[in-house]
Structures are given as structure tokens and as C-alpha cells.
Structure prediction request, 300 residues.
Amino acid sequence: MFLDIHADTQGLEFPIIIDPTVSTYNSSSVRDCHVSGSSVCVGGASAFNVYHNGYSNYDYGELTFYVNPLPTTFDQIRTATIKLVAASIQSSFTIDAVSTIPSYSTTFTNSQSVLAGGNETNINVTNSVSDWFNGKWYEDYPIISYTIKTANSNGAGATYWGNIGINYNPKLIIQYNKYNPTAPTVISPNGNEVVDTNYTVSWSPATDQDDVQSALQYQIDVSTNNGGSWSTLVPLTSAGATSAIVNFASFAATNSALIRVRAFDGIGYGPWDQSNASFTIQHNQAPNAPTGLTPGNTSS
Prediction:
């Protein structure tokens, strides 16, 4: 089935759902079609088979999704899924979605196991949609096309609904990253502290319009030369963390240390925040004065 879909997605929040009911048309180059055996593309299909007869002939569908104009504010694809509603799934099999347009980008085969008796199949096509977006193929090709076929040759397969209504039509669902996180705020060490070995680095959480704060992770870097160079202490914290215990034992003593922290939302990083002033890394420090001496005063 070839579906050419027109949808104005400007200003929409994720996920965007591109639905064939918006607009579908036939032309000599892009057609709503299915292929049966060795036949030519048949237009106007209300359903299509994904099937192999066990000998030499395949039935398969061709899907084309029109995804332009794109929102101008997002910068990365989170996930992309083709959703198919089944008229019947006769037996378990493996379904393939092979990217076909744009033809000069990387070709991806996305496979998904399908169980007999189900009524919906979701195929992860994040890699091909990300390649299409990151390579800016959409500037010349505002469409993404897939051949939907079985990877089996044992007669297993299914029949999927085509262009018959919003609840049944094939859909391309794209989740994208619209906003990167804001900067967190370093609380400690934020200047003039003296650090020896283990020390709790803490910060106020960042915010993100795409994600809750409890989903954000943080990268922690340290500089021992007032920001001239940086090394990573913690690549990523656990989600939602606002502190981390860091061991400074391997760092040479210095009074020019800085900490910086930035948030990560699973796709993009936010800006750094760093210590307002330098702190000191000092090892082999003198012990604290003892307390509770007996006798309690010098006159006794």
C-alpha cells in the first residue's frame, strides 16, 4: 500500500501521528497500492497481505508517509514506529519494514516478531527515520517509504487494513526532542571548600519541557586548572539524581579546582553550570583537634 500523507505538524507537541486520512492520492510515481505475487502495483487497496506462499511469490505492501512541513524547533528523533492494524494474523512470523525512499540514504531493514491472533503490529523504524532526518534528506524528499513484507518463506503471514478509516489506517508515529534541558545550579562545591577524598557534589535540578525532572540524568566534570581543561568524573548519574559522591583521591592537590554539571534528557544535553569560584583539593590533611579531654581543665 502506497500512502502519500499531507499533514501540517507545525506547532504540535510530540508524538506526531501522521495519519493517512489527512490526504491520500494516486499518481504515476506514488500510489496507494499492494503487490500480489508478480502482479503490478494495485491501487486503492483497502487491505494488503504480508505473505509468502512457500514457493516463489510474495505478497507485500508499500507505504509512503508524507511528513512535511516539519516543526522547526526540534533537533533529534526520539522514536519512530509504524503502526499496522491487522485484519487477521494467520500464524506467527517475522515482519520486515525495508526503507526505500529516499533511495540515496542508508537502507534499513527493521524486523519485528508477530504473534498469531494479534490485532496490531508495531515496527520500530527509529534508525531509518533518524537517518532521514539527520541527513536532511527531507529537504529534497519530504516522504519516507517502506516495503512491508514477511521475512519467512513458510507460508506464514497476515492481512493488514489499508486506507479505510482513522482507526485502521497505517500510521507513522514520531516522537522527537523539541527542547533540551536547562542548566542545573551547582550547590557544592561552589567555591572555597577543601576536598580530600570522598565528597558529595550537589546541584539544583534542571528543567525540561519534554521530560519530567525525575527522568533527567547529569554529567559531572572536574577541572584542576581553573577551567583550562576538564575531565569527566561521572558520565551520567541515575535518573532524577541531585547529588553524587565523588572520590578525589587520584587528583593532585590544587587550589584551582572547579566542578561543572549538565543535564541529559535521553537525547540532548543542556548547558553547563560550574562552581562560582575555585575550591581546594588537599590530601594528607592534619587531623581535627581532639575533644572530651580528661582531666577537663589545667587546674586539676
About this structure: The two ends are 100 Å apart (CA to CA). The chain has one helix and 21 strands. Residues 1-14, 16-33 have pLDDT under 50 and may be disordered.
